[in-house]
Automatic annotation (TrEMBL):
Known EC number: 2.8.2.-
Pfam families to which the protein is assigned, alphabetical: Sulfotransfer_1
Protein family (similarity comment): Belongs to the sulfotransferase 1 family.
Chain ranges passing through the membrane: none
Keywords annotated in UniProt: Glycoprotein, Transferase
Domain of life according to the entry: Eukaryota
Name of this protein: Sulfotransferase
Taxonomy of the source species: Eukaryota, Metazoa, Chordata, Craniata, Vertebrata
Keyword Glycoprotein annotated: yes
Domain Sulfotransferase: 2-157
Keyword Transferase: yes
Length: 174
């Protein structure tokens, strides 16, 4: 990869990311154990299984430490997965600026589709019809035991704080 390569990284709340990841696996393998049981190495002691990829991927600060061995931070744009949903044009504005492009994509290109529950394009490329992302994006997540969710929030907090500090952006995942 060229040294000047720019990287665009979309990050979302690591707890929601883990549940989303699990939801995707569940859709392909309905017989897998529950999210709650996969989360812990030992449920009694509350020891989290950081070797489970769904959990491990969300430790963004650790991954960023490795990427920074190869790329300067100025070459990486961190896009908020949450703002990509609440304000897609705003987030894509940042992407266009980062790439040195004219701001072509604006608010005018999106509408909120109530059925999908997500923003969609008013017109797909090369078509006059609206376009939403497919069925595999924006799936309903299973209900997860709130105690487990809280335990994961506590687990990720220090890594999230470190990540905010490293990127200079507060993603508001608390
Ligand atoms: N506009 C719009 N429409 C639908 N979905 C949207 C949109 N913007 C962001 N998202 C979020 O994208 C999540 C899926 O993206 P992934 O990066 O996980 O996709 S991938 O399956 O790994 O390729 C997907 O995660 P889930 O909600 O867990 O399915 C969405 O929350």
């Amino acid at each position: 990869m060229s040294k000047g390569t720019k990287l665009i990284v979309v990050v979302r709340d690591p707890v929601t990311r883990a549940i989303s990841d699990y939801t995707q696996t569940l859709s392909k393998k309905p017989d897998i154990p529950t999210f709650e049981s996969l989360t812990f190495k030992n449920r009694t002691t509350g020891l989290i299984d950081t070797s489970w990829s769904a959990i491990q991927i969300g430790i963004y600060a650790k991954h960023l430490e490795n990427w920074l061995l190869y790329f300067p931070i100025g070459q990486i744009l961190f896009v908020s997965g949450e703002r990509l949903i609440s304000d897609p044009a705003g987030e894509l504005g940042r992407v266009q600026d980062f790439l040195g492009l004219k701001r072509i994509i604006t608010d005018k290109h999106f509408y909120f589709n109530k059925t999908k529950g997500f923003p969609c394009l008013k017109k797909a490329e090369g078509s006059s019809k609206p376009h939403c992302l497919g069925k595999t994006k924006g799936r309903t997540h299973p209900d997860i035991d709130q105690e487990v969710v809280q335990r994961l929030r506590d687990f990720y907090r220090p890594f999230n704080m470190k990540f905010y500090q490293m990127t200079g952006q507060d993603f508001g995942w608390d």
